[in-house]
Amino acid sequence: MTYVSSGINSQDLTEAIFANLAVIQFDMTKKIVFVNHTFAQTMDYREAELIGMNHANLCFSEYANAPEYRQFWASLKGGNCFKGIVQRRKKNGDIAWIDATYMPILSEGQVTGVFKIAIDVTEKQNQLKHVESSLKDTVDYLHDNYKARTDHINSMLVTIKQIEKDLQENFENIKVLIANAQSISTITKTINHIASQTNLLALNAAIEAAHAGPYGKGFNVVASEVRKLSNEVTKSINEVKDTTSYILKNLDQHAVGTEQIHVNMKQTTEELGGLTDEFQLLMAKVEELDEISKIIVNQ
């Protein structure tokens, strides 16, 4: 690799790094052999307190005693670099988030120590953790409300479908009633026709009885009673006809209204079903956002 000189010598570059970044060096036993003021200040230690301290003392015991910790150091001793945000333990036990780069020091091809450059990102990480926590609370809230709303919508759908079924049955019953009312109307027309014919026959019989003189007197009485009965039947039939017509008119209106309600209920069912689908899509996006926030924090 070729470097282009810009007038800065290696001594100046080293001093700039040591003055602005947290720097620490470990030997092969993980003990600290060098630390600058910036790193000591980051961990709330004095520099003298850190010299000779084992790296594990800067870690929380859960990690220091875990297989991952041993693998971490085995990789460094094998000559591999490591870069990432790590969690470390301050002197007072608080968490420090460090953006660290561990670099093995090679001498004649052998690793003789580990050099680390670090940046304190605790505040940034805490902010990200707060964002993650807020997002999680939002996701949990939306999820709970989504479930409640979905259960409510599903309950409404069950009720609406039952109403649809009842309306359809009611509509079918109305159609039967209309058919029966129409049959009554047809029958009343027939009876009215018969009554009219009977009245005409009674009238003719009365005329013939009048021609028969005294011999037709009794027959005239019968003809008069028949004509009177025919008139009463006609009157009653007309009343039935008027009532039937009124019922038919109302049944027709009710049938039209019921059919329209059925159409509206069906449309509402479809819209509620679509709303449930939209809720599910929304929750999928919210959960995706939650996963993205976790990835951002972990990075």
Task: Give a structural overview.
The structure is a single chain. The chain has 299 residues and is of the alpha+beta class. The chain has 2 domains: 10-107, PAS domain (Beta-Lactamase); 128-298, Orthogonal Bundle (Helix Hairpins). 70% of the residues lie in helices and 14% in strands. It has helices at 10-20, 37-42, 47-50, 61-64, 67-77, 122-211, 217-298, and strands at 22-26, 32-35, 82-89, 95-107, 110-120. A 5-stranded antiparallel β-sheet has the order 2-1-5-4-3, with helices on both faces. The longest helix is centred in the middle third of the chain and has 90 residues, at 122-211. The radius of gyration is 50 Å and the shape is rod-shaped. It starts with 9 loop residues before the first helix and ends with a helix. The model has no long low-confidence stretch (mean pLDDT 79). Belongs to the methyl-accepting chemotaxis (MCP) protein family. It comes from Kurthia sibirica. Residues 151-299 form the Methyl-accepting transducer domain. It holds the Pfam family MCPsignal. InterPro entries: Chemotax_Me-accpt_rcpt, MCPsignal_dom, PAC, PAS, PAS-like_dom_sf, PAS_fold_3.
